[in-house]
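Retro notes (design track)

What went well: tokenization of the new backbones is finally stable.
What didn't: we kept losing track of which sequence belonged to which structure.
Fix going forward: every design gets posted as structure first, then sequence, in one message. First example under the new rule, 233 residues:
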């Protein structure tokens, strides 16, 4: 079972979409970590938000052949009785639930950063793929093996890959990329596009032109923070 600190679940960034400008990026002339120039699974890369965005390849996406069942989820990888969905919900609780037989969850409390809603019923939560399965398919996963798609859909090794949020906010997002949907909580937008960029970097996914333009435009108003990520492929 992964462990995620509650501060990560509650994390927001002081940079917001409307209030910050590109002047808040790193000082001119300051040395910055380089974007990844090669890929090796298991390699740990440190870069910056802007460099990571620059490094994401741009292609025209297509959804030909996509079916959600191409990504097997939710699995119980460690055979502890709790599948991936429940692992995330348990890890992100700000008040721990009781875990009963067959990983039934009662009690507990959660915070949904997409819409700043506090939840007291685990059944009201969805576990969102930061980069939706359909978007991953469009961005390169259509050529992956079934095992790689399963690993992506159940990625507990990077806390940014999966997030527990209200069902309402997750279903509003659906399979949209940031050009078509952003969290209604504006103080979470910079964190959201940073995590989106990190997941795409981790899995070697591409962007389409509108998506990348949107990400770069928003990132210009965010802190150009360092990103450390272990490459999955």
């Amino acid at each position: 079972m992964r462990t995620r600190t509650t501060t990560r679940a509650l994390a927001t960034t002081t940079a917001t979409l409307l209030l910050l400008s590109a002047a808040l990026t790193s000082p001119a002339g300051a040395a910055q970590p380089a974007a990844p120039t090669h890929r090796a699974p298991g390699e740990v890369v440190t870069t910056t938000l802007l460099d990571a965005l620059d490094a994401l390849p741009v292609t025209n996406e297509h959804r030909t052949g996509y079916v959600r069942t191409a990504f097997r989820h939710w699995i119980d990888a460690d055979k502890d009785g709790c599948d991936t969905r429940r692992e995330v919900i348990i890890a992100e609780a700000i008040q721990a639930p009781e875990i009963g037989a067959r990983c039934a969850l009662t009690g507990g409390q959660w915070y949904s950063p997409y819409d700043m809603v506090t939840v007291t019923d685990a059944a009201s939560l969805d576990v969102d793929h930061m980069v939706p399965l359909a978007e991953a398919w469009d961005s390169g996963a259509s050529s992956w093996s079934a095992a790689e798609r399963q690993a992506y859909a159940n990625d507990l090794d990077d806390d940014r890959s999966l997030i527990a949020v209200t069902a309402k906010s997750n279903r509003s997002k659906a399979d949209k990329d940031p050009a078509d949907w952003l969290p209604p909580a504006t103080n979470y937008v910079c964190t959201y596009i940073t995590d989106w960029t990190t997941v795409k970097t981790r899995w070697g996914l591409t962007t389409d032109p509108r998506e990348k333009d949107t990400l770069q435009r928003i990132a210009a108003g965010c802190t150009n923070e360092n990103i450390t990520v272990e490459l999955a492929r």
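Added context from the reviewer: The longest strand covers residues 44-48.
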